[in-house]
Amino acid sequence: MHCPFCRHTDTRVVDSRASEDGSSIRRRRQCPQCHRRFSTVEATSLSVVKRSGVVEPFSREKVVSGVRKACQGRPVGEDSLALLAQRVEESLRASGAAEIDAHDIGLAILGPLRELDEVAYLRFASVYQDFGSLADFEAAIATLRAEGRG
Predict the structure, then answer these.
(1) Could you write out the DSSP letters of every residue in 17-29?
(2) What gap in Å lies between CA 43 and CA 62, rounded to an integer?
(3) In what order do the strands lie in the sheet with 24-30?
(4) pLDDT per residue over 89-122, tens digit each?
(5) What is the DSSP string of 116-145?
(6) CB 147, CB 141: distance < 8 Å
(7) Listed residue (114, 110, 125, 99) closest to 46, CA to CA
(8) Where are the zinc fingers (unnamed) (predicted)?
(9) Where are the domains of the chain?
């Protein structure tokens, strides 16, 4: 790490602290040459590989936006959507991969959405899993009912 004041090529870490949500680390550094202190923030990046091959940064807001459409007219609040997006991001980060396929994000959404609202889950799954007939809906509903009894 270069010193932002004198451009010395090496600095010493004085203190490190994790951020509140644990997604980044704040480091207090000191330059051995000019002895000035400064802070840096280190964050891990999570990238999404889309079907077209384009790579873009992961966005919780895009998760919320997609799920919000499935929850339209359902008794699901914005706080619940934000929590769902956080759970999805945490599960993706837990995989340890720096790049995540867009399809895997959809899979990661299905579980928490199902717990949140089964109707919204069916709506999202119908688009995401490309339901083509009523039989697809019936099979998904039968699965929900069977697992609800178990």
Answers:
(1) EE-TTSSEEEEEE
(2) 20
(3) 12-18, 24-30, 37-43
(4) 989 988 888 899 998 999 899 999 999 998 999 9
(5) H-HHHHHHHHHHHTT--SHHHHHHHHHHHH
(6) no
(7) 99
(8) 3-34
(9) 12-43, 47-148
